[in-house]
């Protein structure tokens, strides 16, 4: 637990966002850097609950060891806190930014006081871990003779790849789009989840030995499971992951020749991918670009300061603005 009387001494204080007058001019993340001293006080508010409902079915869906790393943060043991967080969470930099935090809704302190700032603490633990260089590629000590194909590189696909690679299997991830990440890349705006954060994790996964193949639409670019590279000899199992219509992972053996069904794609995602590719790869007439509030020029970098873009009278503002592209 944290400090026995911490929840009585210190009020809830969330990690502040950047000032609205500043963040309205760009598409960078809204978060400010973590303040260790303030976060230690927030960690101290975690009580010695008889039943920590933040870990129950009403709380964290991935069973994060929340009271344990809250206590370690309170004691300033950040690296140990990262180790405890990483035991249950493959990508805390994603969940710490975009998770709706049911853990806080289930926090016992929240019955009669503002809940512990669990989400802020989680996000800060992993951000500090990257800053300190504690997070390294997870290279297995030895490889098995098993190879796995994962169809889809969204959060479920990346998690499956990380877990399977960690035990020594050779993993290849097939993604139909031109970038890895699924909804992480094309479904969440930069202000909530910077694409640099996604790319940083993907780079770690690559360095861990995972192979990624983009522009590989199973059923179209690759006609069927039987046409995956050397399926019978090379691919021992396949994971078909459809993050967009349901949260299930369907496991099957390659010998069973399973049906492939990708349905329920979000129209917005389709529009974003097509708009970006068309805009940067083909010529258009009647292109109108309006830059940021004060008319500042476009700049190079992960985020592009654009108020809106029109191509043939079609609004594409968020589509182009959240891409990992330099102009």
Summarize the structure.
The chain is an alpha/beta fold and 327 residues long. 35% of the residues lie in helices and 11% in strands. The chain is globular.
Topology readout:
Elements: H1 6-9, H2 20-23, H3 36-44, H4 66-74, H5 78-86, H6 92-98, H7 102-106, H8 118-132, E1 147-151, H9 155-166, E2 170-174, H10 183-186, H11 195-207, E3 211-213, H12 231-234, E4 237-241, E5 249-253, H13 267-281, E6 287-291, E7 306-311, E8 314-315, H14 317-321
Parallel strand pairs: 1-2, 1-4, 2-3
Antiparallel strand pairs: 4-5, 6-7, 7-8
Order of helices and strands: HHHHHHHHEHEHHEHEEHEEEH
What's the β-strand tally?
A: 8
Name the poorly predicted regions. Answer: 229-234, 242-269, 282-327
The level 1 CATH classification of the largest domain is: Mainly Alpha
Q: Which radius of gyration do the C-alpha atoms yield?
A: 22 Å
**Strand line-up in the sheet with most strands:** 3-2-1-4-5
How many angstroms does the end-to-end distance come to?
A: 49 Å
CATH architecture of the largest domain: Orthogonal Bundle
Number of domains: 3
CATH topology value of the largest domain: Fumarate Reductase Iron-sulfur Protein, Chain B, domain 2
Helix percentage? 25-40%
- Summed up, the helix count is 14
Q: How can the largest sheet be summarized?
A: 5 strands, mixed
Q: Kindly estimate the percentage of residues that lie in beta strands according to DSSP.
A: 5-15%
Description:
With 327 residues, this protein is of the alpha/beta class. 35% of the residues lie in helices and 11% in strands. The chain is built from 14 helices and 8 strands. The radius of gyration is 22 Å and the shape is globular. The chain starts with 5 loop residues before the first helix and ends in a 6-residue tail after the last helix. The model is unreliable at 229-234, 242-269 and 282-327 (pLDDT under 50).
């Amino acid at each position: 637990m944290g400090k026995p009387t911490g929840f009585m001494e210190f009020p809830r204080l969330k990690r502040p966002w950047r000032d609205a007058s500043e963040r309205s001019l760009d598409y960078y993340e809204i978060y400010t850097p973590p303040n260790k001293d303030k976060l230690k006080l927030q960690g101290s508010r975690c009580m010695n609950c008889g039943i920590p409902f933040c870990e129950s079915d009403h709380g964290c869906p991935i069973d994060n060891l929340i009271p344990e790393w809250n206590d370690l943060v309170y004691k300033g043991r950040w690296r140990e806190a990262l180790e405890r967080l990483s035991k249950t969470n493959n990508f805390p930099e994603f969940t710490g930014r975009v998770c709706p935090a049911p853990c806080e809704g289930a926090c016992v302190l929240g019955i009669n006081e503002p809940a512990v700032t669990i989400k802020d603490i989680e996000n800060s633990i992993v951000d500090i871990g990257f800053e300190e260089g504690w997070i390294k590629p997870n290279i297995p000590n030895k490889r098995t003779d098993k190879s796995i194909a994962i169809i889809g590189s969204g959060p479920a696909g990346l998690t499956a790849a990380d877990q399977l690679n960690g035990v020594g299997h050779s993993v290849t991830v097939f993604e139909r789009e031109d970038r890895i990440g699924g909804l992480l890349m094309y479904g969440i705006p930069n202000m909530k989840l910077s694409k640099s954060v996604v790319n940083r994790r993907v780079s770690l996964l690559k360095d861990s030995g995972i192979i990624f193949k983009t522009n590989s639409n199973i059923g179209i670019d690759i006609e069927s499971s039987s046409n995956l590279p050397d399926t019978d000899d090379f691919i021992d199992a396949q994971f078909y992951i459809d993050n967009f219509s349901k949260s299930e992972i369907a496991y099957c053996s390659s010998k069973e020749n399973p049906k492939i069904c990708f349905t329920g794609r979000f129209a917005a995602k389709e529009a974003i991918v097509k708009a970006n590719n068309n805009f940067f790869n083909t010529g258009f007439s009647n292109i109108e670009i309006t830059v940021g509030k004060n008319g500042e020029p476009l700049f190079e970098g992960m985020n592009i300061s654009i108020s809106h873009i029109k191509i043939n009278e079609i609004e594409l503002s968020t589509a182009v603005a959240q891409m990992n592209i330099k102009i």
